[in-house]
Design goal:
The chain is about 70% helix and about 0% strand. The protein has about 260 residues and is an all-alpha fold. The protein has a single domain (about 35-259), classed as MetI-like (MetI-like fold), CATH 1.10.3720.
């Protein structure tokens, strides 16, 4: 809700500066003001408003990166598991090469080449995150292609494309949704890390990682600049992971049977 309509919840514009109110503490501390509930930053911008608008960037990057990586990974995994042979070998070797590089290191290297910006961040996270989907979906497809209903579809003359779209994909949808939920939390943290390093969405656009970087120099004198964005980031990722656990319990019939 907050990310969709931040203007409804934010008390101020995230870009308005007022040096007369710089580094004002939260409302409950001495010197705080009811106009700035969580205080202000080094140039007088409202911290609460910037956190609210930062949610839009973090969730937009996370969701779009999940869609890109999920589409690539599921397609690669289904093709590898269904056709096996040279197709499987090629896709899995590419995945293994990519997995040999740490995720965040590969993202930093690619962003450094392509340049910072919202579109490039989404592309980088999507392209570097497909391998998890591919490996899991490949294993499930290998098991599904031996099932009786797949053999029956082949016997009545269904094409490979129809079998994959009509019979394979629906049977891996639940697991894919769980993977996407956990990937969303990973991508939000990755976006914040890249923004903290100056490789994400550029100022003055508010991002949680950018707020952490801006407040780093004021840890001793203005702790609220990093505490509140960090707390919101932690709670958001925790909530998404709890949602992923719940989705796994609901969508996995074996776990549902034991509940």
């Amino acid at each position: 809700m907050v990310a969709l309509v931040p203007a409804v919840f934010a008390p101020h514009s995230p870009y308005d500066q007022n040096l007369a109110n710089r580094l004002r503490p939260p409302v409950w501390l001495a010197g705080g003001s009811g106009d700035h509930l969580l205080g202000t930053d080094a140039v007088g911008r409202d911290v609460l408003s910037r956190i609210i608008y930062g949610a839009r960037i973090s969730l937009l990057v996370g969701i779009m990166a999940v869609l890109v990586s999920g589409a690539l990974g599921v397609a690669a995994g289904v093709l590898a598991g269904y056709f096996r042979g040279p197709v499987d070998d090629l896709i899995m070797r590419v995945a293994e090469v990519q997995l040999s590089f740490p995720f965040i290191l590969a993202a930093v290297a690619i962003v450094s080449v392509l340049g910072a910006g919202l579109r490039n961040i989404i592309i980088v996270l999507g392209v570097t995150g497909w391998t998890t989907y591919a490996r899991v979906v490949r294993g499930m497809t290998l098991a599904l292609r031996q099932r009786e209903f797949i053999e029956g579809a082949r016997a009545i003359g269904c094409s490979h494309a129809r079998i994959m779209l009509r019979y394979v994909l629906p049977n891996i949808a639940g697991t894919t949704m769980v993977l996407a939920t956990f990937a969303l939390a990973t991508f939000i943290i990755a976006e914040s890390g890249l923004s903290y390093l100056g490789l994400g969405v550029q100022p003055p656009t508010p991002t949680w990682g950018g707020m952490l970087a801006d407040g780093y120099l004021f840890l001793r004198t203005a702790w609220w600049l990093t505490t509140f964005p960090g707390l919101v980031l932690m709670l958001t990722v925790l909530a998404i992971n709890v949602l992923g656990d719940w989705a796994r319990d609901v969508l996995d019939p074996r776990l549902r049977h034991t509940m």
